[in-house]
Amino acid sequence: MSLCLAAGAVAASLAVESFTLSWIHSIEKIRWEEDWRIEGRALVITEARIRGSGAGMEPPEGAVLKSGVWHYRPKLPPQTVLRLTHSPHAGGYTLCTATVCRPLADLLPGIDNNAVIDIRKCPP
Protein backbone atom coordinates (compact mmCIF):
# COMPACT_ATOMS: atom_id res chain seq x y z
CA MET A 1 0.00 0.00 0.00
CA SER A 2 1.07 3.56 -0.57
CA LEU A 3 0.21 6.87 1.01
CA CYS A 4 -0.02 9.87 -1.32
CA LEU A 5 0.81 13.41 -0.20
CA ALA A 6 0.01 16.44 -2.34
CA ALA A 7 0.15 20.22 -2.03
CA GLY A 8 -0.72 21.88 -5.32
CA ALA A 9 1.74 20.63 -7.95
CA VAL A 10 4.09 19.10 -5.33
CA ALA A 11 3.48 15.41 -4.60
CA ALA A 12 5.12 12.43 -2.93
CA SER A 13 4.24 8.87 -2.01
CA LEU A 14 5.31 6.56 0.80
CA ALA A 15 5.06 2.76 0.85
CA VAL A 16 3.35 2.38 4.25
CA GLU A 17 0.29 0.75 5.78
CA SER A 18 0.15 3.00 8.84
CA PHE A 19 1.57 6.33 10.02
CA THR A 20 1.50 8.86 12.85
CA LEU A 21 0.79 12.57 12.35
CA SER A 22 2.03 14.93 15.06
CA TRP A 23 2.11 18.65 15.65
CA ILE A 24 2.63 21.20 18.42
CA HIS A 25 -0.38 23.29 19.42
CA SER A 26 0.37 26.87 18.36
CA ILE A 27 -0.71 28.53 21.64
CA GLU A 28 -0.23 25.95 24.39
CA LYS A 29 2.92 24.39 22.85
CA ILE A 30 1.58 20.90 23.63
CA ARG A 31 2.27 17.92 21.36
CA TRP A 32 -0.65 16.12 19.71
CA GLU A 33 -0.35 12.80 17.86
CA GLU A 34 -2.73 10.72 15.76
CA ASP A 35 -2.15 7.14 14.57
CA TRP A 36 -3.68 6.27 11.19
CA ARG A 37 -3.80 3.15 9.03
CA ILE A 38 -4.83 2.55 5.43
CA GLU A 39 -7.91 0.34 5.28
CA GLY A 40 -9.45 -0.32 1.88
CA ARG A 41 -9.59 3.07 0.13
CA ALA A 42 -9.77 5.07 3.33
CA LEU A 43 -7.67 6.25 6.25
CA VAL A 44 -8.79 5.08 9.70
CA ILE A 45 -7.69 6.72 12.93
CA THR A 46 -6.71 4.14 15.55
CA GLU A 47 -5.56 6.31 18.48
CA ALA A 48 -4.77 9.88 19.43
CA ARG A 49 -2.59 11.29 22.19
CA ILE A 50 -2.28 14.69 23.85
CA ARG A 51 0.87 15.27 25.88
CA GLY A 52 -0.83 17.47 28.46
CA SER A 53 -3.81 19.80 28.49
CA GLY A 54 -4.48 23.50 28.32
CA ALA A 55 -7.08 26.14 27.63
CA GLY A 56 -9.58 24.71 25.17
CA MET A 57 -7.58 21.48 24.89
CA GLU A 58 -9.29 19.25 27.42
CA PRO A 59 -8.94 15.53 26.70
CA PRO A 60 -12.19 13.99 25.44
CA GLU A 61 -14.46 11.80 27.54
CA GLY A 62 -13.03 8.33 27.96
CA ALA A 63 -9.40 9.45 27.55
CA VAL A 64 -6.92 7.60 29.77
CA LEU A 65 -3.90 9.31 31.34
CA LYS A 66 -0.70 7.23 31.10
CA SER A 67 2.64 8.75 32.18
CA GLY A 68 1.39 12.31 31.58
CA VAL A 69 -0.09 11.55 28.14
CA TRP A 70 -3.81 11.37 27.42
CA HIS A 71 -4.73 8.41 25.12
CA TYR A 72 -8.08 8.14 23.36
CA ARG A 73 -9.76 6.96 20.18
CA PRO A 74 -11.51 9.74 18.28
CA LYS A 75 -15.02 8.99 17.07
CA LEU A 76 -14.25 9.72 13.44
CA PRO A 77 -15.45 7.67 10.46
CA PRO A 78 -12.94 6.47 7.83
CA GLN A 79 -11.62 9.40 5.79
CA THR A 80 -10.86 9.37 2.08
CA VAL A 81 -8.59 12.41 2.51
CA LEU A 82 -6.93 14.24 5.38
CA ARG A 83 -6.61 17.93 4.56
CA LEU A 84 -4.03 19.87 6.57
CA THR A 85 -3.03 23.53 6.35
CA HIS A 86 0.67 24.31 6.50
CA SER A 87 1.02 27.64 8.30
CA PRO A 88 4.01 29.89 8.97
CA HIS A 89 2.32 30.87 12.29
CA ALA A 90 2.41 27.39 13.82
CA GLY A 91 4.81 24.48 13.90
CA GLY A 92 4.53 22.16 10.93
CA TYR A 93 3.21 18.63 10.90
CA THR A 94 5.49 15.62 11.28
CA LEU A 95 4.72 12.28 9.64
CA CYS A 96 6.21 9.15 11.21
CA THR A 97 6.37 5.68 9.72
CA ALA A 98 7.65 2.52 11.40
CA THR A 99 11.22 3.57 10.57
CA VAL A 100 11.48 7.37 10.37
CA CYS A 101 9.84 10.70 11.32
CA ARG A 102 10.05 13.65 8.95
CA PRO A 103 8.40 17.06 8.72
CA LEU A 104 5.73 17.11 6.00
CA ALA A 105 7.50 20.14 4.54
CA ASP A 106 10.60 17.95 3.96
CA LEU A 107 8.49 15.32 2.20
CA LEU A 108 6.95 18.01 -0.03
CA PRO A 109 9.87 20.37 -0.76
CA GLY A 110 8.94 23.72 -2.21
CA ILE A 111 5.45 24.03 -0.71
CA ASP A 112 4.50 27.56 0.20
CA ASN A 113 3.81 28.79 3.73
CA ASN A 114 0.03 28.49 3.45
CA ALA A 115 -0.17 25.26 1.47
CA VAL A 116 -3.08 22.87 1.87
CA ILE A 117 -1.73 19.33 2.11
CA ASP A 118 -3.88 16.35 1.12
CA ILE A 119 -3.05 12.91 2.49
CA ARG A 120 -4.82 9.85 1.05
CA LYS A 121 -4.34 6.27 -0.05
CA CYS A 122 -2.69 6.21 -3.45
CA PRO A 123 -4.85 4.86 -6.25
CA PRO A 124 -4.07 1.29 -7.32
Task: Give me the secondary-structure topology.
Layout (H helix, E strand, L loop, with lengths): L2 E5 L2 E5 L3 E7 L6 E9 L2 E9 L13 E3 L2 E4 L9 E4 L8 E3 L4 E3 H4 L8 E6 L3
Antiparallel strand pairs: 1-2, 1-11, 3-4, 3-9, 4-5, 5-7, 6-7, 8-11, 9-10
CA-atom Rg in angstroms = 15 Å
Order of helices and strands: EEEEEEEEEEHE
Tally of structural domains: 1
Helix content: under 10%
Largest beta sheet, briefly?
Answer: 7 strands, antiparallel
Write out the strand line-up for the largest beta sheet, numbering strands in chain order.
6-7-5-4-3-9-10
Category by helix and strand content: mainly beta
Overall pLDDT, averaged? 90
Distance between the termini: 8 Å
**Poorly predicted tracts of residues:** none
Number of helices: 1
Strand content: over 45%
Structural shape: globular
The strand count comes to 11
